[in-house]
Each structure stands twice: as C-alpha cells, then as structure tokens.
Specification:
302 residues, mainly alpha, single chain
Length: 302
C-alpha cells in the first residue's frame, strides 16, 4: 500500500460557482455567431507587377488654343455679320471722306467768291460722312457674346464706343455753333487785322480741339482692338502692322502734312488697307468657315 501522501484523490467533476458576471452571460447556444473579420487589404484587387494598374479616368489634356483665345471661326454668325457690316461702313465712309474732301477743296479754290458758302456745305457733307464712319465704328465694336464676361471695363472696344459717342455729340454741336457764328459774324472794321470772333465761333474752335483729342484716343484704341481681333483670325501680319502703325501713322501724318501735304492721305490709305484685310477674313469666315487665303498667313492655325 502506498503512503498516504502519495495517494491521488479520486477525480471528481466539480461545477464552478456561478458569479454575478456569469449569471448575466447568455448560454453559448444563444450567443449569435460573429462574422469572420474581413481583411480590407486582402479584399482589394491585386495587380501583378507585369501589368500596372490603369487609371480609372484619363488625365485631362492641356487646354487648346481655341479655349484660351476663341477664334472668329467659332464665333456667333450674327456677331460676324455685324462685324463685317461695321467694317464696311468704316471703309466706305473713309473713301467718301477722301472724295468729299478733294472735291470741295477744288471747288473752294475755283470759286473764291463763294468761299463761306462752300465751306459750310463742305462741313455739312463732312458731318454726314463722319456720321457714317462713326456708325461703322459703333457696329465694328459690337460686343462678342462669348467674350463679354472676359473683357475688362477698360478694354479697347469699350473705349472706342465712348469716344465715338462723344465725337458724334461734338460734331453736331460744333456744326450748329459754326452756323450761329457765321450768321453773327460782322465784317472787320477798316484797318483791323482781321474779323473778330464771336462767342459761338470761339466755342466751335474749342470743340474742334476736343474732337482732335478724342480722335487721337480713338485711333490708338482701334489699333489695339484690331490687333486683338487679328489674333482670333489668326493673321499675325495684321498684328504686326497694327502694333507698328500706332507710332508710324501719326508720324507720317504730322510730318507729311507739314512738308508735302500728302501725309494725311498716305496715312489714311495704309489705315484703310489694314482694316480691309481684316474685312476680307471676316467675309471668308462667314462664307467658308475659314480665314481668307491671303499673303503672309501662318501655315497652320494656332
């Protein structure tokens, strides 16, 4: 028999004493099974090193030049018709201005006895011709619906319109004052150096000076506006000439008028040719959808 301290007590199945925590725990049969944990990293699609993952959407392409500077070929047809009409009024008005000035100058030299009457008729005819030209500039600077939101309030187009409106008022007011001044003028007294100007004639001369200032402002604004339109053709010959004409035309106008007398006529011809080249492009775009095939054009649209 084994000693007492080496005896192994008989195996008895004991039940643990239930505690408060175990009493509230539901039996194993009533515990809902938990879903197996999902590995988000393993659920993602695995790409082999041989075939790299492709992007879900293609990368955005750089904006084309047509989005940065819309061409006239993509402009509204109604706007193009207005643009062509405005250029036609301006160019035809310039031709009428040249013909009218030459005609009445010859008449004034031939009919010296009726100098004042010829001068008034000439001024009346110039008012009508100037009205045609100003109306053409107004239509020429009609806002493009696709560009109104992008231009600033100090744009060349807006400047031209303000100056044109001011010039129209000055021309009419100056002509009325000229008529009043002529009717109130009196012949000079014997021994006087010349006739005395009345108030109406003085105001007419002041308006004439203001009109010249506005005409200079309009000229520079038209050159800038024409250069901007030429970039939308695109015709970089017009761009280059418009930039150079901003100083060249005033130079030959002043020097030519002082030396030869034909400077203004020569400057007007160069100015007319520049705008006529732009009109040819507008006509071609309206008819065929592309610019006119003129000389010194770019090989491809940019």
């Amino acid at each position: 028999m084994l000693p007492a301290w080496t005896r192994i007590p008989p195996f008895r199945r004991t039940t643990p004493t239930p505690t408060r925590e175990t009493r509230s725990r539901p039996p194993p049969s009533q515990v809902p099974p938990h879903p197996p944990p999902t590995d988000t990293a393993s659920s993602a699609p695995i790409h082999s090193s041989a075939s790299p993952p492709t992007a879900s959407a293609p990368s955005a392409a750089p904006p084309s030049s047509s989005l940065r500077e819309p061409t006239l070929a993509n402009a509204d047809p109604a706007y193009l018709l207005t643009l062509r009409s405005g250029l036609s009024f301006v160019l035809n008005g310039i031709l009428l201005l040249i013909v009218t000035t030459i005609t009445f100058t010859v008449l004034a030299l031939a009919l010296t006895s009726t100098g004042n009457a010829v001068t008034l008729v000439l001024e009346g005819a110039l008012i009508i011709v100037s009205g045609i030209i100003l109306f053409g500039y107004w239509k020429f600077t009609t806002p493009d619906p696709s560009q109104v939101a992008l231009e600033t309030t100090r744009s060349a187009r807006a400047t031209i319109r303000l100056v044109v409106a001011a010039q129209a008022v000055i021309a009419v007011a100056g002509f009325i004052l000229e008529l009043i001044g002529t009717s109130l003028s009196t012949p000079p007294a014997p021994g006087a150096p010349g006739p005395t100007l009345n108030l109406a004639e003085i105001l007419s001369n002041v308006l004439m000076v203001i009109g010249v200032v506005f005409w200079v402002i309009q000229f520079f604004a038209v050159m800038r506006y024409t250069r901007w339109l030429a970039t939308r053709v695109p015709d970089f010959l017009i761009v280059k000439r418009a930039k150079g004409y901003m100083w060249f035309l005033p130079l030959i106008y002043v020097l030519g008028a002082a030396c030869v007398g034909l400077g203004p006529l020569f400057a007007l011809i160069l100015y007319w040719n520049l705008l006529d080249r732009l009109r040819k492009h507008v006509k071609s775009i309206i008819k065929d959808g592309v610019h006119a095939p003129l000389k010194n054009m770019p090989l491809a649209d940019v």
